[in-house]
Each structure stands twice: as C-alpha cells, then as structure tokens.
Amino acid sequence: xxxxxxxxxxxxxxxxxxxxxxxxxxxxxxxxxxxxxxxxxxxxxxxxxxxxxxxxxxxxxxxxxxxxxxxxxxxxxxxxxxxxxxxxxxxxxxxxxxxxxxxxxxxxxxxxxxxxxxxxxxxxxxxxxxxxxxxxxxxxxxxxxxxxxxxxxxxxxxxxxxxxxxxxxxxxxxxxxxxxxxxxxxxxxxxxxxxxxxxxxxxxxxxxxxxxxxxxxxxxxxxxxxxxxxxxxxxxxxxxxxxxxxxxxxxxxxxxxxxxxxxxxxxxxxxxxxxxxx
Amino acid sequence: xxxxxxxxxxxxxxxxxxxxxxxxxxxxxxxxxxxxxxxxxxxxxxxxxxxxxxxxxxxxxxxxxxxxxxxxxxxxxxxxxxxxxxxxxxxxxxxxxxxxxxxxxxxxxxxxxxxxxxxxxxxxxxxxxxxxxxxxxxxxxxxxxxxxxxxxxxxxxxxxxxxxxxxxxxxxxxxxxxxxxxxxxxxxxxxxxxxxxxxxxxxxxxxxxxxxxxxxxxxxxxxxxxxxxxxxxxxxxxxxxxxxxxxxxx
Lengths: 278, 250
Ligand SMILES: Nc1ncnc2c1ncn2[C@@H]1O[C@H](COP(=O)(O)OP(=O)(O)OP(=O)(O)O)[C@@H](O)[C@H]1O
Ligand SMILES: [Mg+2]
Prior knowledge:
Helices cover 77% and strands 0% of the residues of chain A. Chain A has 278 residues and is mainly alpha-helical. Chain A has two domains: 2-44; 62-231, MetI-like (MetI-like fold, Orthogonal Bundle). In chain B, the strands form two sheets. Chain B has a six-stranded mixed sheet, sandwiched between helices. Chain B has a four-stranded antiparallel sheet with strand order 2-1-4-5, with helices on one face. The radius of gyration of chain B is 18 Å and the shape is globular. Bound molecules: adenosine-5'-triphosphate (ATP) and magnesium ion. Magnesium ion binds at residues 43-44, 171 of chain B. Adenosine-5'-triphosphate (ATP) binds at residues 14, 19, 37, 39-45, 57 of chain B.
C-alpha cells in the first residue's frame, strides 16, 4: 500500500515536471515555427542584395539593414569585448575584495538589469544631440554599453573557475603575477571567456530600442559611420508597424534572418572551442 | 647542488592568528628533512614561508629570518627566490591549458628560454629525473590533465625540477596517490636527495622513516623536536614527540 502511494507520488511529480517543460517549449517552438512559416516565403536573393523599395513595388530587400547590423555589432564588439574582458581580469585578478571592485560589481549588475531603451536615451542625449546627428557610431556605442557588463560578468565567472592552485603553481615556479595571469590563467579560461563574448554579441544583435534614437534607420546605404544607418531590428519594427502587406512580408523575412544569425552565433559559441588536445 | 636553510625566530600570522610561534630550525643541504605533526599545527604554513608564498595571501604577516645559503630570503625578490626554492603541492596541479611538454618547461619558457632544442633537452632531463619520461615520451603534446593522478604529480615534480631549484619543498606530495604511485615518488625523492635540499611534509610516519635523513616534529605552531630520523622514531627526547609517534594523540 505504502509503495503504491510512493509510486503514485513519483508519477504525479514527474507529470508536473513534464507538463511545465511542455508549457515552456510550446511558445518557444511556436515563435520559431511562426517566423519560419511566414518568413521563408518572403526570403529570396533580392532580400539580401536589394535596398528597400517604395511601398507597392515588389523586390525590395534589407541588404542595408543586414550590413548596418553587422557594422554596429562590430563597432560594439571592438569597444565592448576588450573593455569588458580587461575589466573582468582586473576585478578578479587584481582587486577582488576592495570597496572599489564591490562597487563596480554592483554597478555591473544594475547595468545588466537596466532596460536597454534607457541606454538608448542616454546615448541620444550624450552623443546624438552633441554631435548633431544619428549615426552608426552612436548605435554601436549604445550596443557596447549593453555588452560591457555582460562580458565583465562572464569573464569574471570564468576566471573564478580557474582554481587558485593553478595560480600558486605559476608563482611557485618563479613566474611573475602578470605572466601567470596572461600565459596560464587566461588560456585556461579562454574558451569560457570567448563563449561569453559571443553570447553577448548574440544578445545585442537583436536589440532594437537602443538603436531607435541612436542609429535611427535609413532606407539607403549609409555613406559613413557618422550618419543614420539601417539595422535589422529597427527595419523589422518599422515594416511590421506599417500598414502595407509587402512590408509585413519583409519584416517576417528580416525576423527569420535575425533569428538565424543569433542561432549561428550561439552555436558557434558552443561548438567552436572543443578541446585542442585529444 | 642543495643549499642550507636556517630559520630563525620565524612567526607567521593569518590575520590576528599567530600560526607559527617562533621557529628555529637548521635544514641541511643534500638532505631529506621530513616535517611531521598533527593537522593544523602549521606544517604547510611553515613550508610556504620558505618560498615566500605565505605572504601572497591577503592579511598575512611574517616576522623573523630565513637564511638561504648565507643570504636572507627577505632581501631577495620573491619571484627570483622561487626559482631557487621550488615547490610541489599536495594535490597535483598541472596547467590545464598546456600539454605535457609545455607543462614541464612552463617555468623556463615563461622566464625567457625560447630555444626549441634547449626546451626539448630540459623537458627530457626533467621528465627522466621525475621517472615519467618512459611513460609519456610518445605523447608529449597530450594535455597535462590527461595523465593519471600519480603521473600528474610526477609531472608537477618534473615541472619544479626544470627550473633547477636548489631547494625543493614538498607538501604531502603523495597523499593523493595510491601505494604504487607513492613508491614511485619516494624512490624519486631518494634519488634527488644528493643534489637538492628537500623538505617534505608528511602525515605518513612510515614514509618519513623510509625517506628522511632528519625529521622535525611540529605541534601548535612550535618546533618540538628536530633530529636524525632514527633518533626521533626510536629515542625521542620530548614526551610530546613520543606520544605523537606512538599514536597517543594527533
Ligand atoms: N588561508 C588561511 N587563512 C586563515 N587561517 C589559515 C589559513 N591556512 C591555514 N590557516 C590556519 O593555520 C593553522 C595551520 O595551518 P596549516 O595549513 O599550516 O596546517 P598543517 O599543519 O599543514 O595541517 P594539515 O596537516 O591539515 O595540512 C591552522 O589552524 C589553519 O586553520
Ligand atoms: Mg598542510
């Protein structure tokens, strides 16, 4: 009898877990499926090669938005990855316990949780208004600010995973602290740090809000980094909220491309760094 | 060649806790000196003072003198000192990102030795000394952590020897190993004895009896007794040493 009750309880628990998992998966696959269904039809070569066309005309594409997103993510990475990794190294290796590093760590946590639109407003006020125009630089900077705390945190976590005994082994061989960090600790944590950076890239490449009033958007090619530039998320937003059916189609195609980009970056982050030794 | 160490009135602190309470000890060159004593008596702390590793922890303090080959270690650059005073830790800790070869030559390579042939020669010599060469010579570029625990520990010994220290500190180097690996390490220590000053912490009294020329008994941060191993084990002068050795406490 007792055993029967126990089995029944087990079965009940298991069904609850399974049910929760299914509830979590349905929207996930729902989103993917919906975007696939609507986006695949509109996806063609012209989407990747053509500029947007005026409404009513067919054959428009998002070439400028794809390139724009790549450019701004590149700018963000060039700023955010070095700054984030170096700060992460400083906080774990040189200054783990002081009030300063505690304050920085707290600020990073807060910054991670801040809605990204606020970063956009700040850059709008501090950069766009000062320079007098929307630009790829402003957009890239906004994305960098979102990236930095993510990378600081992931770098810190990865460095903390490197056991203290590894550092002591370095010192005990008469290797200086700087070299121990650079040549022993960092390589040990490298895969994790790079993975963290790539996930941060994936995360910002879909950001829309901070680009709305920093990069603005552009129906044509931007001729320099100092003028408004198109991006996939903003273009999707504008097309999806327009009243035109053709543009809705393009928005779906853009969504599909964006999702694929992010999936590819995520996969690369996970699989590119398999162990180098057998 | 080994170098003599003489420790004078050494006190070591962790924050407010005085862990070593004035140690005076002479450590002979080309000798194996064992340190025994109950857990928490300060053996590791003592050994870590000798390569100035103790002071790298935040909140620690050291008072007193340690003279290595006539010169105070506190007058030397700690990074340079650690090339003369090598250390092997309790748990094997090869560098995970490095191959077996890179592990062995890490100390010399990161300190500027770039010549491939020299590095090759250093690696082979050190691995032979650590009695590991035959087991790994065909897979030098496998990861250091692909080895068994006992092999990893010998790899760490080879890595320490590659820097050509005069003093080798070993903090329970065999405590994580099985009896066969332990025998390997003990043989190795006996062979190294002629050319190094070896200081080995051990909980295993048979081990101390097997390999050490002299033995020091620590208790509560003090050096109770230090003498020839045979004397300490058969004819201890201090009652507390006798109690510990006969297993009456600790
Ligand atoms: N990092 C540390 N911070 C504070 N106290 C410490 C630290 N390391 C050791 N101690 C304390 O110092 C004393 C001596 O420790 P130590 O590690 O030298 O002992 P031990 O003789 O090596 O012991 P065992 O045989 O268990 O390795 C202990 O009371 C320990 O609690
Ligand atoms: Mg110890």
